[in-house]
Amino acid sequence: MKPSAFEYHAPDTIDEAVAALAELGDGAKVLAGGQSLVPMLSLRLAYFDHLVDIGHIAELRGIRNERDAVVVGATTIDAAVEHDAELAARVPLLGRATPLVGHFQIRNRGTIGGSIAHADPAAEYPAVALALDAEIEALSPRGKRRIPARSFFEDIWATALAPDELLTGVRFPVWNGRSGFAIREFARRFGDFAIAGAVVAVQLDGDDRVERCAISLFGLGPTPRRATAAEHAARGQKADIAADELGQLAMSELTDVPSDVHGSAVYRRRVGAAMVHRAWSDAIVEATGA
Amino acid sequence: MPEAVVQMTVNGDATEASVEPRVTLADFLREQCGLTGTHLGCEHGVCGACTVLVDGAAVRSCLMFALQARGAEVTTIEGIAGPDGGLTHVQEAFREEHGLQCGFCTPGFVVSVTAFLRDHPNPTDREMKEALSGNLCRCTGYQGIVNAVRRAVGAEQ
Questions:
Q1: What is the pLDDT of residues B44-96, one digit of tens each?
Q2: What is the ipTM metric for this complex?
Q3: Does B118 lie in the same domain as B151?
Q4: Interface residue of B27, B52, B68 to substitute, partner A, most A CBs within 10 Å
Q5: Which CATH code for domain A7-53?
């Protein structure tokens, strides 16, 4: 239960971190808050010759407001995301998802960038990023790029980031108008990874019709997924559309629901449908009242 | 692998030591500082027995490397009580309510609850139970621990 040996690098700036990753190549891994990486190292599920600790780089931390988006720096800890009142107002899903991430001790160290780069299929932040069409900002010796969340999550724990690319921040678009947001998940114990969960964002027009919506699923495949058929079915419909049917429709699109000791694929689909149903209903209530 | 020098403050004392990078903060505190009150149960972030305060925030010391605590102020269970050894409200409440049996998990619970009540002086039962969910106890069934938190809330008011 001890990690294997590695060399430790602690750059003070983003440029130094990118240079270190370029120089060290495939044998290097970025260490942010370590709340996912350190257990994997301790269990010897992973080992690296070099760890590049980005936890002391001040410019990677903090929340920046732009006109239509909020950019959350990679090493902003979950607890900071959880307790930022302006962020809760502009991107309500982040404030609502964060209390579901691990336990409060984990949220004191875990970072938003770390969670998204780790890309656990049952994690909350990747599903929120996917629902909101967030963009992942990355930097490498080849320059900066923004990766849409839709093409970022490639497989279980696998993303579009190149080994020498550093995730520097996540850009969450701000939804305006009559919007509602909700996240629902089911876990056997508080703080556990969800057996299945759903994130919903919905915007209504003046006539109470769904103008815009996003349904994102987690714990129901190797990556978070958008329920595109269910979204399509809901768009343009009145707000009182049958939410239980949306849940069923969302599950009908899935082909690779995991089955493990925590729940069979059949069970996960039932839980997933219920989570979509509840999250959709919560979001509609909020949007209708807005 | 080359060792590196790390400086941090542990229970108020400036500490400087040379450590192998793979040494966790928990192992550093236990083996290099001799502070064995920090317990290691699972060593992968599940049980919470190793909880310490880093710059005031309750964290799992098995999930960070000692080198990551560079420049930090670390408080272990040994640093929770006053300098005269007098018990805090939280420690007294655990004793009064039988919030422990074997005691293995207790340092983690006391540190977590100390930080939680500092930030939430008047918690609801639900907040209390959520805050306790990151620490595992295999003896008590938690009722004594929940009662201890309730008593500590009352004692501080």
A1: 999 999 999 999 999 999 999 999 999 999 999 999 998 898 999 999 999 99
A2: 0.97
A3: yes
A4: B68
A5: 3.30.43.10
